[in-house]
Amino acid sequence: MVEALRGRLPDSNFPSEGKKIKRKDFYPYLGCDGWGSVMPESYVLINVDPGSEEAVLKEVRKHPNVKDCHRIYGLYDMIAKVEADSMDGLKEIITWKIRRLPGVRSTLTTIVIE
Predict the structure, then answer these.
(1) How far is CA 102 from CA 43, 49, 60, 91, 108, in A?
(2) Multiple choice CATH, 41-111, 3.40.1190.20, 3.20.10.10, 3.10.300.10, 3.30.70.920
(3) What is d(CA 69, CA 45) in angstroms, rounded to the nearest whole number?
(4) Euclidean distance between the first and final Cα of the chain, in Å?
(5) Would you say residue 20 has pLDDT above 90?
(6) Poorest-confidence range of 20-34, 62-76, 98-112?
(7) How far is CA 90 from the centre of its chain?
């Protein structure tokens, strides 16, 4: 388990050689208590081509892992809350289901830690 998480968390979360730690100590940044299932969630900021806002919004909202999606003002055009069963699942949804939609120019993904 340590090797799977190394690189995803700050080095301060990993024990010195020979030191035992509890499983829950690995999960402060992944949004769970360490004993239940890890359910990562993220907020994805999305830039779209001018004029395609409504079409992209409609398509993003269709995906079952997208829990909420809104148009916003500012540097990005919309924000979507996305949940998945794993970090790999989250990556797949964002990379292959959201970023590949016609009209999506770019995304910025933030991972929820608390």
Answers:
(1) 20, 9, 11, 18, 17
(2) 3.30.70.920
(3) 10
(4) 21
(5) no
(6) 20-34
(7) 5
Q: How far does CA 85 lie from the centroid of its chain?
A: 11
State how far the Cα of 81 lies from the Cα of 112, in Å rounded to an integer. Answer: 10
Q: Which SS3 state, helix, strand or coil, does residue 83 take?
A: strand
For residues 37 and 54, what is the distance between their CA atoms, to the nearest angstrom? Answer: 35
pTM above 0.85, yes or no: no
* Continuous H helices in the chain: 2-5, 53-62, 87-92
